[in-house]
Write a structure and sequence with these properties.
- The protein is mainly alpha-helical.
- The protein has one domain.
- The protein is 68% helix and 0% strand.
- The protein is elongated, with a radius of gyration of 20 Å.
């Protein structure tokens, strides 16, 4: 009996339903770039969008339509990277709580600073699933299944400088 138990634990069978659900959602994201790449690309997209916001007032009237298109392209690309980054972050938090046998984020640093940010593990998983659905909607089924991500910023709008 104990040999069987050791084999089961070594295989990594989830101890709880929450852990099983986390692994199921993580498997949906395995084909995508590593978490550090995703975080860096989401941050790059966020910085790009802030820069465009800073420049908006200086754009001449005759170029505002083209500038609006650049903003829309940037926002779409940032949204894609942000969704993947958020889904992974939420899954990591849910996994950590499930591993510790906790049911919510009470006592976490985030909950200490903003008490309204106390989430249960099922809420974290539901939110991660929502981000995954949004990501799949943006990418399409084929690109989602292949893990094909667009660039983090619309480089096709950039002009070469000599």
């Amino acid at each position: 009996m104990s040999l069987h138990l050791v084999v089961v634990l070594a295989v990594g069978i989830p101890k709880t339903e929450s852990q099983r659900r986390v692994r199921e959602l993580e498997n949906k994201l395995r084909q995508f770039p590593a978490a550090d790449v995703v975080s860096k690309n989401a941050a790059l997209g966020r910085r790009y969008m802030r820069r465009l916001d800073d420049l908006r007032a200086a754009i001449p009237v005759h170029r505002r339509d083209a500038f609006a298109k650049q903003q829309q392209d940037g926002k779409s690309l940032w949204t894609i990277w942000h969704c993947l980054d958020e889904a992974r972050t939420l899954l990591q938090e849910a996994q950590s709580l499930a591993d510790q046998g906790k049911t919510d984020t009470r006592g976490s640093n985030r909950a200490k600073t903003v008490p309204e940010l106390v989430y249960t593990v099922p809420e974290l998983l539901e939110e991660a699933e929502r981000y995954i659905r949004i990501l799949e909607g943006f990418l399409g089924e084929e690109n989602f299944c292949a893990g094909r991500m667009p660039p983090p910023v619309p480089y096709w709008n950039f002009q070469w400088a000599n």
